[in-house]
Amino acid sequence: MYIKTDSIEPYPIREPLRKCLTEALDQIAAYLDETLYTFHHDNEPLEETWLYETLPPRYKSKMTETMCRNLVSTLEIVRKKVFGHAPAEFGCPAEEIILGWALHMAVDFMLLTDPSLGLLKEQVAAFFDIVFRDIDFEYAYNLRLDGIENDTRANVRAFRVEEWFDPYDPAKGYLTAAN
């Protein structure tokens, strides 16, 4: 149950955060399965799937069955890294995106089911700050920053949907294709 961070020691994931992340990842897996089902049934509009609603606006038109299948595979990799017994780092932007979705969902889910778990939100925020080196992947949701990955002066890792599954350079934490 560790995510490798910039510090020497990995960050242990404790209850109730562990339970919240498990439930959130399970829910995301179910949503992705629902989206894959929708790709094969013409009477089901893709626009009504969780994935379509969750994607940043500029990525909605790029949603494909292949992208969804890759997200399913990536989710399982994230699950193994988060709940595995050895420290792990993010391997690609999609792993960060999925864990970001899971953390946001975990907070929302737990606050809806038990509002007294306000402390959980603080635990998630602390975990978020430790695990993510930056929040470049969240720039995709800010329409004012649309295209920031194209600005070489911004020093932002590229988060074009075409690069979500490209591996990071382990030494730098940036996309190998961008180096």
What does this structure look like?
The structure is a single chain. The chain is mainly α and 179 residues long. It has one domain. Helix content is 46%, strand content 4%. It has helices at residues 17-39, 50-54, 65-83, 93-113, 118-131, and strands at 2-3, 11-12, 168-169, 174-175. The longest helix is centred in the first third of the chain and has 23 residues, at 17-39.
Indicate the topology.
Layout: E1 2-3, E2 11-12, H1 17-39, H2 50-54, H3 65-83, H4 93-113, H5 118-131, E3 168-169, E4 174-175
Please identify the structural class as seen in this structure.
mainly alpha
Fraction of helical residues: 40-55%
What general outline do the C-alpha atoms trace? globular
Chain-averaged pLDDT:
77
Widest sheet, order of strands: 1-2
The string of secondary-structure elements, in order, is EEHHHHHEE
